[in-house]
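Input/output pair, single chain:
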Amino acid sequence: MLCGSLDDISYNRAMNSPQNPFDTPHFKQALSRFPTGVTVITTQQMADANPAEWGHQFVGLTASSFNSVSLTPPLVVWSLGLKSRTLPSFQKVSHYVINVLSDEQLPLCQQFAYGEGDRFKNVNFDLSHQSLPILKGALAWFECRNRSQYPEGDHIIFIGEVERCGFTEGSPLVYQQGSFSGVQQLAD
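Output:
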């Protein structure tokens, strides 16, 4: 596979030839042009995690790798890097909650992305049916059974079967080209 701008690519050129190795940084730049919603995924602390290190019985992380898969059954997908310190918990739990953030929740996004220690400090949440955090102010939430996991490349792909969900009105937090923003409606 070869990535480059349309000006740089000859469609007749051989893919992955020794003269044209795959350019990972260029690939990341190309991917960054696709805007994604931002989520915080929460669950119980499991595995060998030290509760004192986390400061809480829950773990959570910011993720933009979320999407729908199927309506029947109701399935969603997200992925987590193999080096994430939250990976052992997400691999072992029976359920997790995917919280879709609003454009007013950038500080929350950053707290779960970069926070050390207790990422839930000063975070308002309700508990789901499975006693997992549903973040207050989230545009939508999906309580999922941890249905299946697939290792691919440097990530684990999680398929969640949605058992319960909820939503409210508002504008989503969006991530594109290394920046966060909201969205505007376009005129018809």
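Helices lie at 24-31, 51-54, 87-92, 106-114. The first strand starts at residue 36 and ends at 37.
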